[in-house]
Write a structure and sequence with these properties.
466 residues, mainly alpha, Amino acid/polyamine transporter I, two-stranded antiparallel ribbon, 16 helices
């Protein structure tokens, strides 16, 4: 049962188990997609100590998902962050967080959709010498992902888990191959703090890049209405998925550094260093690295679309978006209108920016601009955690879980936030801070207008799994 929701506007209960949402959280972090697209720039900024950066970013993520886990023990909801904040500081601020999430999710998903086009195009070119426009596979894979998400949460989740299992197998195979073929280069220098390029300054430059692969860690919380025992399942899923992601990311990054003999120049210069390094040693099996990137991207399209659609659906159900977006498919029990509308908007943005400015620029811009508001949401949720528990569950209030961990998490995320917004960024990145502020101000005005004009419908934070 979901409190505050009408029967037709409820998702299918008990459709998923803990293993499903833990796996989708891992798939949402997309190890192959993330390592392929970010490793070169991480190495260029931090040197051979990139594996250490990955571990530090993972620890910062654990501090953040603690807030998601603790809130989900008490107010699990498809609305996730929006409900957490609304239950702490009221429906207006919850609505502003919801608006900010909408902006961020569209931009981040657009970056995913762009890679869903460019990676298959590059795979065909690299393996078969066939050249096709990137936007053709993007439209095909976006349509497949959106279709699976409409078809059902179970079938889409199982496909995502299958894709994810394949990519992890490929990453482990490639990593082991690079280690076995470069035994003389195996050492633990990449984990030494003194080897961070540029010291603390290098840490500040590289840390935001290392955080990016973990951004989807809390998306399991959006499946609260469809998973069995969400109060327990979400906590287990987010911690287990981040812990496993740290292991996979660290092992893959370390193996790649070893595979290049700790020569950071060639490693940073490679477009896809992990792919290039593994293909050199895998021989005829090297093509699997490209297929791993393809399945990783496809899994990410599915789980990201599922996650954002449920937040949109809940915001519509609670009166902040048009009520038609809260429609649940009669047969499949999915929020099909939010999937189609959100997926359509995202596809259009990816297509317009990619064709207008190039796929690489469009990916960089949407990924960076989408990350800034998401990190701001993380900070607000961490700030809300101690306030919520002190006000509503004082007998369970813990200084460690509800004060120390969220406070350290806030400090950890201030580093990537400042590095992204710091003065002196090249254009157009130097305008992203003002653009984000503009988005938020527009959201504040919009939420105020909705709350004032439709007070009886505006119920952000009302829907929590009983």
């Amino acid at each position: 049962m979901v409190s505050g929701s009408a029967g037709p506007n409820s998702l299918r209960r008990n459709a998923l188990r803990t293993v499903h949402i833990a796996s989708t959280s891992l798939a949402n972090m997309a190890p192959a997609y993330s390592l392929y697209t970010t490793l070169a720039v991480i190495v260029a900024s931090s040197g051979i100590a990139s594996p250490l950066l990955i571990i530090l970013a993972g620890i910062a993520t654990l501090l953040h998902v603690n807030a998601t886990a603790e809130f989900s023990r008490k107010v699990p909801s498809a609305g996730s962050y929006t409900v957490f904040v609304a239950r702490t500081w009221g429906s207006y601020l919850g609505g502003v967080v919801g608006w900010t999430y909408i902006v961020s999710s569209v931009l981040l998903l657009a970056s995913v959709y762009i890679v869903a086009g460019t990676w298959p195009a590059q795979t065909l070119q690299a393996l078969f010498g066939v050249n096709i426009p990137w936007w053709i596979p993007m439209l095909v894979l976006a349509a497949v992902g959106i279709g699976l998400c409409v078809r059902g949460v179970v079938i889409s989740t199982k496909w995502a888990i299958g894709f994810f299992a394949f990519e992890v197998g490929v990453l482990v195979l490639g990593s082991i191959a690079m280690l076995v073929t470069h035994p003389a280069a195996i050492n633990f220098a990449p984990f030494a703090p003194g080897n961070i390029l540029g010291g603390w300054k290098g840490l500040g430059l590289a840390f935001p890049l290392a955080v990016y692969p973990y951004l989807g860690a809390s998306n399991a919380a959006t499946m609260a209405e469809e998973v069995r025992d969400p109060r327990k399942a979400i906590r287990q899923a987010v911690f287990a998925s981040v812990g496993l992601a740290i292991l996979v990311y660290t092992f893959g990054t370390w193996a790649t550094v070893v595979g290049y003999g700790e020569h950071t120049g060639p490693l940073a210069a490679a477009a896809y260093p992990m792919v290039d390094g593994a293909m050199r040693v895998l021989g005829p099996l090297g093509f699997l690295m490209y297929l791993g990137g393809l399945t990783s991207t496809m899994a990410l399209v599915i789980v990201d679309t599922n996650a954002f659609a449920r937040v949109w659906f809940n915001l519509a159900r609670e009166g902040m978006l048009p009520t038609s977006i809260a429609s649940v498919h009669e047969k499949y029990g999915t929020p099909w209108m939010s999937v189609l509308i959100g997926g359509g908007i995202t596809t259009a943005i990816a297509l317009i920016l990619g064709l207008g400015y190039g796929a690489v620029n469009a990916f960089d811009w949407t990924g960076t601009l989408g990350t800034i508001p998401m990190v701001l949401i993380f900070l607000v949720v961490n700030l809300a955690l101690p306030v919520y528990f002190w006000r509503n569950h004082r007998a369970e209030f813990s200084v460690f879980w509800h004060v120390i961990l969220p406070f350290v998490g806030i400090l950890a995320y201030l580093v990537p936030l400042w590095s992204t917004l710091a003065p002196g960024q090249p254009a157009p990145y130097n305008s992203f801070g003002l653009v984000t502020l503009l988005f938020i101000v527009i959201g504040m005005v919009y939420v105020w207008w909705v709350k004032k004009s439709r007070p009886e419908q505006f119920q952000v934070g009302a829907n929590v799994v009983e």
